[in-house]
Design goal:
The complex is a heterodimer of chains A (318) and B (424). A five-stranded parallel sheet of chain A has the order 7-6-5-8-9, with helices on both faces. In chain A, helix 4 packs across helix 5, helix 6 crosses helix 7 and helix 6 packs across helix 12. Chain A starts with 17 loop residues before the first helix and ends with a helix. Chain A is built from twelve helices and nine strands. Chain B is an alpha/beta fold and 424 residues long. Chain B has two domains: 98 residues, Urease, subunit C, domain 1, CATH 2.30.40; 308 residues, Alpha-Beta Barrel (TIM Barrel), CATH 3.20.20.140. In chain B, helix 6 links the parallel strand 11 and strand 12. The two termini of chain B are 21 Å apart. Classes of the chains: A alpha/beta (318), B alpha/beta (424). At the A-B interface, helix 5 of A face helix 6 of B.
Chain lengths: 318, 424
Amino acid sequence: MSTVWDKKDLLGLENLSKDEIGLILATAESFKEVSSREIKKVPALRGRTVVNLFYEPSTRTRVSFEVAAKRLSADVINIATETSSVKKGETLIDTGKNIQALKADIIVMRHNYSGAAAMLARALEISVVNAGDGWHEHPTQALLDIFTLKEKLGRIQGLNVAIVGDIAHSRVARSNIWGLTKLGAKVTVCAPPMLIPVAIEEMGVNVSHDIDDVLKDADAVNVLRMQFERDGGQAFPEQLEYFKNFGITKERLSKLKKDIIIMHPGPLNRGIEISSEVADGKHSVILEQVTNGIAVRMAVLFLVAQGQDKSKKYETAD
Amino acid sequence: MRLLIKGGRVIDPANNLDIIADILAQDSKISRIAKNIRAEADKVIDAKGMIVMPGIIDMHVHLREPGREDKETVATATKAALKGGITTVLAMPNTYPAIDSPENIESLKRIIKKSACANVLIAAAITKGRLGKELTDIQACKQHGASAITDDGASVDSGVLFAGALKKAKAGKLLVICHSEDKKISNNGVVNQGLISTRLGLRGIPRASEYKRVQRDIDLAKKTGARVHIAHLSCKESVDIIAAAKKKGIQVTAETAPHYFALTEDALLDYDTNMKMNPPLRSQQDLEAIKQGLKNGIIDVIASDHAPHTENEKDIEFDRAEFGVIGLETELAAGITELIDAGLLSWLELAGKMCLNPARILEINKGTLSAGADADITVISPDKGWQVEKSGFVSKSRNSPFLGRKLKGVVEYTIYEGRIAYKA
């Protein structure tokens, strides 16, 4: 592949080219094998320090990044910060500069505010990997979703992929939309009208409120986690009604004429957006997504470290 | 004291004057305009190749004093104003404490007397503490020198209470300035609602939060006969509503700020908090409507909505950053660059929006170069380009949406009450 990775950060998929996404996926493919070895480790990031800076509670993404960094032989430090203390405590940029002063190489950040990763990346010379910022983007989740799809179906180009659930407040949805459309998939978002954000069609997707109609043509469905407590619950449908109208159930899938892949970024709300039978059934690739997440995050950490080295070299060349 | 400004291109919209001429000012008043004035003067300015227009009157400025002197003070804001060619500012009442009583007006007047280097007019609050609950003593505020009333930054949500304020303002012949926003519709949004808010994952502010309240405010103005001025128009629908109201003969004037004709929501794509203000930057279509509104006279006034904030309040996550941008030192250049250079407005029209119309709305003897008017004059090199940089600001704050942009037009002299108060 002729594409060269020269970015020190991974902030989202919106600003990546098709080839850059392809490079991450190809790199992930070569790293996937490492996790099946007896000694699950390569020295690619030996001597480097990765800091997981999490402003929101997260177990799976944080652990996945930690495992990925350790399999690359990096040293990992985890910092979990309660969002409420941000108001009194030091600013995000100060925190970042302190981590940089400790000579860490990569910050993996989860933050409850959209744009926080971009702001941090601008202020620092070390790499920033966005592990989810507000409603904005969660690029590694989308990359692992796409990686899994490609592994299962051999391609992304021309696939019909549906994203179902709270699109309005979902960073997973936005990153998937950018990634999938850049790679040539047809994307449909499906939810009650109140959970579809304004002007989303202009991001190149179809909008539907009829899940059965969407499933009919879909090669794969990404089922988003529903968070009914958001906004005091005002802008949300009633849980049982949602399950009835949009829940992914065995009955719905049994009506389909072709095979379908069911994905979910986790953690699952069984019986709310997805039935247990489907989550554990033959269509589900949910646990494979978790496994692939390691390979994808190894690839991302490896590439941004390279990108950082390159940008430093350019600076000294000037 | 006699000041003679020689050979400039004199722009005076009150007299529809656009000629090469000399201006003589004597003892803080304009004495006369003529070609080749031969008079003894204490000071002579050679204004060849320059624009000579009335001092700018910016009727939407946050001085931050009293209460937030870390952001700005009367001294620093008026100094910044002079650098921007502005000789009169109308101070908004959202200070700490709010300017909501004769006592607070008097104490602000003492600060102004001590430290202002340009003319500062005072807008008092409509309700106590700007909380929208209880009316201030509007008549007393007027007697103590308030030029207008406004709850600035907030709209009086209760229609009954606001109508009561308008009736009192009408009786007291006082201007009411409306921050027209229904915060229930804004719903804690931080950027314009649309594709950009969706892409950025930020909460959107629908246009309706502005124009529905503009409509209400105009309806109540019609009902009560009060004189209202709608602040900082940002969207097309608001312009249309003002146009319809003016056609019906309702007493309403309207204002916009340079960022609404110079920038769109696209400027937000990298979460630049210096692009965060309320109302938010809107779409290209809105920007065009604002420009057309300026062109066809629907929008009477350009004002900065100068809103200084410290770096600590801006250099944080977008959602947490304060709303508002500074504008005193860039508004004239933004107008020259985006309106005159773009061929949309003539110099006479721009001076109308920035000098004459605000003076008429505020009923002051300024905004014109007529003999006998206050000798507040701005002398500008219209073709000089400059780059907006943090280090260049006189204001205490640096939160400009024009940082890094190249603008045209440099203020060479600002004359306030017949004296050179600023020189480039």
